[in-house]
């Protein structure tokens, strides 16, 4: 090992899985003798964990890595690495655009990073490692605890191939971890003070299905993910369980039964809709109709009326007409989402939809995007009014960023709650907050009691 030890810094873009990967990689690098840099400027090794999901995400990452060219000229020993989804997507082509990059490491090779850094130190620069391979979950199990909530990656990859989506191309095929291994990781996290476990997977409701199929054990009535939820919920000390991202196509009876009956599974469900038009859903290869989506939400609501729903929607998919868009708008109004991410369609080279052209003009995409967000703001404010006067269980996360005199936390329905702290309040406490007033973004209230956790 070098003396003094080399300092690393990881910049993370993209989804929670990338955040989780960066956390696990930090632990792996620390085990190998590297130390976290106090700031990006002090790092000897600078890694960019990137996202490819939309063109904008790639452009942002390329821009940030490009800015390092100057620094590299001044500090030729600086090691610059691009890892994650864009590394996987572009591979060696990245080195042509960004010749100051030393390492390009794809999504299923990141556990090899320490060896690759050693290679760079030994003089091998411009190394690219992407392509198939199994993820080494055991090398990526480390956690750096902060806050009461912890991410646990339970599966990776996606076999869905929605026509617009790059994720299956950059994350590879679905690979799930055995239940015992996940439970072990959760036990460890609870032992270190975690209260809320957020299970992650690119197609999490398909957890365990590929493995069950290979073993000849899969039936459409089964839900290996429901079995996993049951096991994780049963770990003593787990107060809350959340999960993301699911696909509505796997939300069968066994799934609905589990999420609505397990007391620590939170009543907040993120269910990507993408479009309310059956024609567009077919072109997207989502595998469900608007009616099927509705019935999944209805099945959950029937057993859990207080459930909150959030979603992802794409506007401006190829051939999307005003009528298709109106169908999305109406379905969103009908469901009454508590939160939604609205994305403008961005063609991803190599996907099926990229061959359909990109015929919805940018101004129309912008307009549709704006309309959905405006609808949502009005509706969420209305929905939040229902909380006034009610008592919510809130997991205290610490002083609020905007006003450190107040604390913030989340309700089980994933609403941000702002409240005045009481003496002795600690991060990770579950408190009962009576909501006094609301905006479209947060609930504001006062602590009634600390819940016996
Ligand atoms: N596995 C997740 C999706 C991850 S990508 C899921 O199925 O929910 C997150 C969101 O990005 C998707 O739900 C979709 O709404 C959006 N998205 C994916 N590809 C896109 C594209 N090419 N253009 C615009 N939005 C896209
Ligand atoms: Fe992409 Fe569809 Fe897989 Fe989600 S389910 S990651 S949208 S291909
Ligand atoms: Fe982006 Fe990769 Fe996540 S493409 S959304 S970082 S899986």
Question: Summed up, what is this model?
Answer:
By secondary structure, the protein is α/β, with parallel strands linked by helices.
Features:
single chain; 453 residues; alpha/beta; Rossmann fold; Transcription Regulator spoIIAA; OB fold (Dihydrolipoamide Acetyltransferase, E2P); six-stranded parallel β-sheet; five-stranded mixed beta barrel; 15 helices; 35% helix; binds S-adenosyl-L-homocysteine; binds iron/sulfur cluster; binds FE3-S4 cluster
Radius of gyration: 23 Å
Q: Give a count of the beta strands, DSSP E runs of length 2 or more.
A: 19
CATH class of the domain at 7-129: Alpha Beta
Largest sheet: 6 strands, parallel
The percentage of residues in β strands lies in 15-25%
Strand order of the largest sheet: 2-1-3-4-5-6
Q: Using the coordinates shown, work out and report the CATH topology of the domain at 7-129.
A: Rossmann fold
Assign the structural class, choosing from mainly alpha, mainly beta, alpha/beta, alpha+beta, or little secondary structure: alpha/beta
Q: What's the shape?
A: globular
Q: What low-confidence regions span 5 or more consecutive residues with pLDDT below 50? A: none
CATH homology group of the domain at 7-129: Methylthiotransferase, N-terminal domain
* Level-2 CATH architecture of the domain at 7-129: 3-Layer(aba) Sandwich
Average predicted local confidence, pLDDT: 95
Q: Roughly how much helix do the residues carry, as a percent range?
A: 25-40%
The hetero molecules present are: S-adenosyl-L-homocysteine, iron/sulfur cluster, FE3-S4 cluster
Q: What is the subunit arrangement here? A: single chain
Distance between the termini: 44 Å
Count of helical segments? 15
């Amino acid at each position: 090992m070098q003396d003094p030890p080399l300092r690393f810094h990881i910049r993370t873009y993209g989804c929670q899985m990338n955040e989780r990967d960066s956390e696990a990689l930090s632990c792996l690098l620390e085990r190998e003798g590297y130390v976290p840099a106090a700031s990006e400027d002090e790092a000897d090794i600078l890694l960019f964990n990137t996202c490819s999901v939309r063109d904008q995400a790639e452009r942002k990452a390329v821009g940030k890595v490009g800015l390092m060219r100057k620094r590299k000229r001044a500090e030729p020993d600086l090691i610059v690495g691009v890892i994650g989804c864009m590394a996987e997507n572009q591979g060696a082509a990245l080195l042509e655009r960004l010749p100051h990059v030393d390492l390009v490491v794809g999504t299923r090779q990141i556990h090899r990073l320490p060896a690759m850094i050693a290679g760079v130190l030994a003089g091998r620069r411009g190394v690219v490692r992407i392509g198939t391979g199994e993820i080494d979950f055991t090398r990526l199990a480390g956690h750096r605890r902060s806050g009461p909530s912890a991410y646990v990656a339970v599966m990776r990859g996606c076999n869905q191939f929605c026509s617009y989506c790059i994720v299956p191309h950059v994350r590879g095929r679905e690979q799930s971890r055995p239940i015992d291994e996940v439970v072990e990781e959760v036990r460890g996290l609870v032992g270190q003070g975690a209260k809320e476990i957020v299970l992650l997977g690119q197609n999490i409701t398909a957890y365990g299905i590929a493995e069950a199929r290979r073993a000849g054990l899969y039936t459409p009535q089964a839900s290996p993910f429901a079995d996993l939820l049951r096991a994780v919920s049963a770990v003593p000390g787990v107060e809350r369980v959340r999960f993301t991202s699911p696909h509505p196509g796997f939300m069968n009876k066994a799934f609905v039964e589990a999420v609505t009956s397990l007391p620590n599974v939170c009543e907040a469900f993120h269910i990507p809709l993408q479009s309310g038009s059956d024609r567009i859903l077919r072109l997207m290869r989502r595998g469900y109709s608007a009616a099927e989506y509705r019935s999944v939400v209805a099945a959950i609501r029937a057993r859990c009326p207080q459930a909150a729903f959030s979603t992802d929607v794409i506007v401006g998919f190829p051939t999307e007409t005003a009528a298709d868009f109106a169908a999305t708008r109406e379905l969103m109004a009908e469901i009454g989402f508590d939160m939604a991410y609205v994305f403008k369609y961005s063609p991803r080279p190599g996907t099926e939809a990229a061959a359909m052209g990109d015929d919805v003009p940018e101004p129309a995409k912008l307009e549709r995007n704006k309309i959905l967000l405006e609808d949502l703001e009005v509706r969420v404010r209305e929905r939040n009014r229902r909380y006034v006067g009610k008592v919510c269980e809130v997991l205290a996360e610490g002083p609020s960023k905007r006003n450190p005199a107040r604390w913030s936390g989340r309700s089980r329905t994933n609403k941000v709650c702002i409240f005045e702290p009481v003496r002795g309040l600690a991060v990770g406490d579950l408190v009962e907050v009576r909501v006094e007033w609301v905006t479209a973004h947060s609930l504001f209230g006062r602590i009634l009691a600390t819940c016996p956790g």
